[in-house]
Amino acid sequence: MPDMSTGDGAATNPGELVVVRHGESTWNRDHLFQGQADPPLSALGRRQAAELAERFRTTGLRAVATSDLARAHETGAIVAAELGLDLPVVLPDLRERWSRTLTGLHRDEIEARFPGSVEAWRDGASTELVGDTEPYDVFATRVLAGLRAASELASAVLVVCHGGLFRVLHQVCGTDLRAGVANAAGRRLLVEAGRLVDAGDAFRPEGTPATGAEDL
Question: Which SUPFAM superfamilies match (predicted)?
Fold first, then answer.
């Protein structure tokens, strides 16, 4: 499994990344598989972003980085505006994993076509997705490069990303997969000598169950 120290420009500065999944999108609301499709935030998602800003108001964040997908960038932009930070730095490597087979399908359609796949995915039992999908190792290498780039922006960076990245964190630094993959949920990581270390500080919106991987 790749780590933060692989590739060009390895991160060596100590720092902190607060890694957060974007607020609820319209496709999250409708239980559609998103991949790299680009739906906007729902009204709930925008409220979740504002609540994230309140959570981070006194935490000393210095910069915000997001993927280039609207649901992540809008979440980060709301937080940055509320905290008086610069506009988010867009890092395309943080994009969600793509799937030509699953994107746009309702989770019931996925289960009907591929029995057992939804439960295995939500339980975190598998890193693989069915059909024509970005290979996991390719995806992991890509998003870790995005985290490495984010870690170079400032000493404390909010990274607004997607649910798939938390599976990579589970593999790389042993985070509890179920603790931080709901919309607007996340966790704090330390960057030490170019490697990610779980700070043991996970959070999620009030009232969100701490079970199951990201919704489809």
Answer: Phosphoglycerate mutase-like
